[in-house]
UniProtKB/TrEMBL annotation:
One Pfam family per UniProt: DUF34_NIF3
InterPro entries cross-referenced by the UniProt entry: DUF34/NIF3, DUF34/NIF3_bac, DUF34/NIF3_sf, N-reg_PII/ATP_PRibTrfase_C
Record protein name field: GTP cyclohydrolase 1 type 2
One example GO MF annotation: metal ion binding
Keywords: Metal-binding
Gene Ontology CC terms: cytoplasm
Family: Belongs to the GTP cyclohydrolase I type 2/NIF3 family.
Keyword Nucleus: no
Amino acid sequence: MKIKEVVCALEQFAPLPLQDGFDNAGLQIGLTDAEITGALLCLDVTEAVIDEAIALGCNLIISHHPLLFKGYKSITGKDYIERCIIKAIKNEIAIYASHTNLDNASGGVNFKIAEKIGLKNVQILAPKEDHLLKLVTYVPLTHADNVRNALFIAGCGHIGNYDSCSYNSEGKGTFRAKEGATPFCGTVGELHQEAEVRIETILPSYKKAEVVKVLISVHPYEEPVYDLYPVVNLWMQAGAGVTGYLEKPEAELDFLKRIKRIFNVGCLKHNEPSGRLIQKVALCGGAGAFLLPQAIRSKADVFIIGEMKYHDYFCHEADILIAEIGHYESEQYTNEIIHFVIRDLLANSKIHISKTNTNPIKYL
């Protein structure tokens, strides 16, 4: 099993185009053609984590947080990041990060947090915008099923809990094949009419190149006609944060104590309780304070967040209960997602969860 096969599986689950603009997810160090000796899963890459990988015989580290966020003009070992780069390269260890693309993916970090809390009917809180395209193509009646099914396999036609979604209308296409053409139907030099199906379907914009390649390969015409339109609809299958519901309402303090236990929180911070019952929960792991307005608009009873600024707490007691559980604590179960994604590719003995606690924040 080569490293690139694991990378492919990770990027099918959490495609890199889902990452936020500031991010640097993906392969950061190493060569993907190497055979995997073992994979170490962690939240952060530190020198101690690389030492752990060396001791375990792992030549791949999969982290949530990227080691590299900025460009480096020199690598001299003057800080821990540069020392990690040197040590990883010297020991032929590849480093891959799955960060905000995994945060924004369906089934990603926030879905894992919701699972730990026991939420039902989990949905994206802030769906992605400007990530959808509509594809329209015209296919001879006899080949419509074949082309349509190929498009679905390539990733078209997913809307919420439905797949294979398309709209189809029949009509007549006209064309005249010029000298040098080898038309699928009709005769060179003569105007031809063909019974065709107009197929309309939807796709994520990052799949455009792949889908067009498939369309051209399966379409019977020499020059397939297709149009791609930007769609302003929200993409409900990817985005920041989630909402969900508890099976039974809980008192505020009972709920907070349960969250503290589940995530082993050293110090849970919250605003003034108002006596409400908690049933609808909004949450975002890590630095998701920007979602507070959406959490309030969603009518959630509580917003669970990794970290929040002091001033963000003011004036929301009547709106929502805020529960800040810590950045590290909120994302600590991310390794379980990665393990799930790659478990069918690697023997269990080759997948290791890091035992190094990389949380830089300590509690008295």
